[in-house]
Amino acid sequence: MEPKPIEATPLVAPTRGKQTVQTGATVEIRKGWVTIRATPSPTGKAMGLAYGNDTFNVVTVEGDWVQVQLKGKQNGWIPMEATQD
After folding, report:
1. pLDDT score of 19
2. Is this prediction's pTM over 0.90?
3. Domain boundaries, given as residue ranges, for the chain
4. Is the pLDDT of residue 7 over 80?
5. How confident is the model at residue 73 (pLDDT cuts 50, 70, 90)?
6. 3-state SS string for the chain
7. Residue 21: how many CB atoms within 10 A of its CB?
8. Contact status, residue 58 vs residue 23, Cβ threshold 8 Å
9. Phi, psi (5° rounding) for residue 76?
10. For the chain, how far is it from start to end, CA to CA, in angstroms?
11. Most confident residue range from 1-5, 9-13, 14-18, 29-33
């Protein structure tokens, strides 16, 4: 049985508790897995998957989405709720 992806439910603001995700920070994917997208949208083209405990450097934040640096020179987008910093 395959794991279910973390849903990309919009958040009120790009915060978790009292913390915010900032450019240059490192984030870690929480349990499960999440689809990495080409654009900051749940309908953006899928680029791949990130799994629990994978870590990424933050490039920028747009609304509920975090742009992360992937291997090579590519960047991708993941929903903020899928991360912990």
Report:
1. 45
2. no
3. 15-84
4. no
5. confident
6. CCCCECCCCCCCCCEECCEECCCCCEEEECCCEEEEECCCCCCCCEEEEEECCCEEEEEEEECCEEEEECCCCCEEEEEHHHEEC
7. 19
8. yes
9. -140, 170
10. 29
11. 29-33
Identify the CA nearest to 82 among candidates 6, 4, 14, 11.
6
Residue type (1 letter), 30: R
Tokens of 71: 């291997």
* Residue count (the chain): 85
In the numeric block, the tokens 């654009």 are attached to: 39
10 Cβ neighbours under 8 A, 6+ residues apart? 63, 64
The sign of the CA dihedral 48, 36, 31, 1 is negative
Q: What are the pLDDT digits (tens) for 20-64?
A: 677 788 899 988 999 999 999 999 999 999 999 999 999 999 999
CATH number of 15-84: 2.30.30.40
